[in-house]
Each structure stands twice: as C-alpha cells, then as structure tokens.
C-alpha cells in the first residue's frame, strides 16, 4: 500500500485544478495584450482573482498574484520596510519565508515567543506594545502565521490583529497552511497582509497571492512591466492562477473536507497512542489543523523514521520540508521548549483531500511495525 501523507509540504493537484490549467494553457494569450486572446487570458486571471478574494473574504482588488507563498511573504516584508517600518517581530515558529525575509531586511528583528502549547504568547505582545510606541518612524511589522506547518497549531490571529491594529502596528499573517484545512477570513483577521500558496490546497506549485488591505502599503519587489497594478511585475502565470482558483473553488464546495481529514487524523493518532504510549503528540492541547499530526518518538531519529516509512510506501516528513532534501530538527518543537530528544525525533504526518481510511490504517500498521523494531535501540539511545 502506498500513500502520500505529506499534504503540508504540498498537496497533490486536484483534477479540477489540472483541468482549469489545461484549458488556460490551450487558450494561451498574454493577459496584458489588447487583442481577443489577451482579453480572454485577462478574463481568466480576473475571474481567478475574484475566486481567491471570495475564498478569504477580501476585496478582489486587494489580491496580488505572486509565484507562491514565499514571494508573498517577502513582498509584505519589503513593503513594510519601504513604508518606514523600523522593526519586525517574527513569531518563533514562522516559516523561513518570513524568518529569512526578516533577517535579510536589515530591520531590527525581534522574536515573538510561543508557549509550550505551540501558540504565540499574547502576554508578550501586550507588554511589547505597552513599552514600544508604534508612531511614525517607529512602526513594527508583526508576523504571525495562521497555522503552523509542522504542528498544525492554529494561532490567535484575530486577538493579535486587534491588539496590533489598536497600537498602530502592521500585521502580516502567513495563511499558507489554512485553505482546505481550516477557515481563514482576511477581513476578520485584522491583517494588513496575508500570504497564500496554491500548491498547499491542490493547486499548482509556483503560484500564490499576497492579499493586502486597502490601508496596507505595497511597494513592488520585482521591477518590470508594472503588472498587478504596479505591485508585482512579470506576466501573470494565467494557467497556474486558473489552477489556484479552481483548487480553492473545489475545496470550498467539498463539504465534509475538514471533518473527513479530522476523522482520519484522529484515527491514526488513536492507534499510535494506544500501541506506542511513549510517543508525544505536539500541539494536541491546542486548536489544530484537522489534518496534521506532529509526533516524536525519542531515540528514533526523524530521518530514520522518514526513510523507514518511505520504504514501506508512505510519504511523510520530519518536522518541515527542507529545500536541501536534508532532514533537520524541528524548529517548532524547539520553540515550544520540547526538551531533549524530541526535536530530532519528530515526524509530521499530514493527510489531505484524497486520503482514504485504508491508507490511514495501513500507515498506522506500518509505523507501529517499524516502531516495534526500532524500540530497543531507541530506548537505549534516550
Ligand atoms: N509559509 C508556510 C507556512 C509554508 O508552509 C510554506 C511552504 O512550505 C510557505 C510559506 C512557502 O510557500 P511556497 O512553497 O508557495 O513558496
């Protein structure tokens, strides 16, 4: 039995998205051309823009298409800096797309801590906002992901957004992991910016969007032809954008999508907990994405688990996907203060729109089998 259980890294393309892409590829056209083919391509892009806006409850004109979540996060950081932000407060569990963009920005970077439960510390935010003023020339961009890619823990973005806006700061929400797993409402988040990515919701790789509120400064990062109302140059990737919108529309009409994933996730977790009581499941006490399990089996290194599962036909990952293909210790578990032996023994299992119960059960069987074999060595290692 083979199963792809790494939907937080990328989710397989939805057939509806592939079909929309095929149609747009065949139709061709540059959305900036004035002739009929160009106008048709423009109509496809604008229909997709409206679909993305509808999905996250934003204004259509506030959606800027990008080449993915990483570019969207970078555009937000760049724009805040260009508008005079002095500091960037980055949650300790942010994805590299935000953390590295912040480090490269040369703004003062402050780490916004998280609690042991995996949620960001709102008391820290409260005292930070009381001690540092958010006036002209002293503005901070606060960056908090809507849900963590490793643990799935959902962050208190509405509360944080209210506090940040009242103080006059700027707020970036990396919402890349939300679509298809949990509701994300841009208007309710109180965010200036939100980053989205197509491939996490069954759309293509290399497409995404930055949603920017009407009062959010946007300064282009990529210079050129002035597309996207001069906020992001480069000919829009119409087929990928059409696939992105089709994936969102399909997810929105997949009525029991969240419940289906939750049932499969809970089924796996219940089996593993019952037969492997010495594992830890991270973020389980907080509100979590319904599809994500972040477990650690001390003494059984992440990379050994990933390879063992791969040999059994199951695609899972250690903590987070890493561009080098290497497995590294979990940043989220480190930030949560997981303690010795956990961050390097973490495994992330993320089910998705096409996961079946048979696959979930087969994964649990295979993992428990391998765990039994690894247990004596693992015990000796801790
Ligand atoms: N932000 C989060 C939370 C992610 O999980 C990812 C992808 O892993 C990204 C940003 C980057 O998105 P993309 O792969 O579209 O560049």
Quick tags:
seven-stranded mixed beta sheet; 13 helices; three-stranded antiparallel beta sheet; 12 strands; binds pyridoxal-5'-phosphate
SSE topology string: EHHEHEHEHEHEHEEHHHEEHEHEH
Overall SS class = alpha/beta
Helix content: 40-55%
Question: What is the overall pLDDT average?
Answer: 95
Q: What can be said about the biggest beta sheet?
A: 7 strands, mixed
Please mark out the parts with pLDDT under 50 across 5 or more consecutive residues, or reply none.
Answer: none
**How much β-strand is present in the residues?**
5-15%
Each distinct ligand: pyridoxal-5'-phosphate
The total count of strands amounts to 12
Which strands sit side by side, in order, in the main sheet?
A: 2-8-7-6-5-3-4
Gyration radius from CA atoms, angstroms: 21 Å
Question: Which descriptor suits the 3D outline?
Answer: globular
N-to-C CA distance: 32 Å
Number of helices: 13
Verbal overview:
It is globular and about 65 Å long. 42% of the residues lie in helices and 13% in strands. The protein has helices spanning 15-27, 36-56, 69-82, 96-105, 122-131, 157-167, 186-189, 227-230, 238-253, 257-275, 302-311, 331-335, 357-381, and strands spanning 3-4, 63-66, 87-91, 108-112, 140-145, 170-174, 193-197, 208-212, 280-281, 292-296, 314-315, 346-350. A 7-stranded mixed sheet has the order 2-8-7-6-5-3-4, sandwiched between helices. Strands 9-10-12 form a 3-stranded antiparallel sheet. A two-stranded parallel sheet has the order 1-11. It contains 13 helices and 12 strands. Helix 5 (122-131) runs parallel beside helix 6 (157-167). It is α/β, with parallel strands linked by helices. It starts with a strand and ends with a helix. Bound molecules: pyridoxal-5'-phosphate.
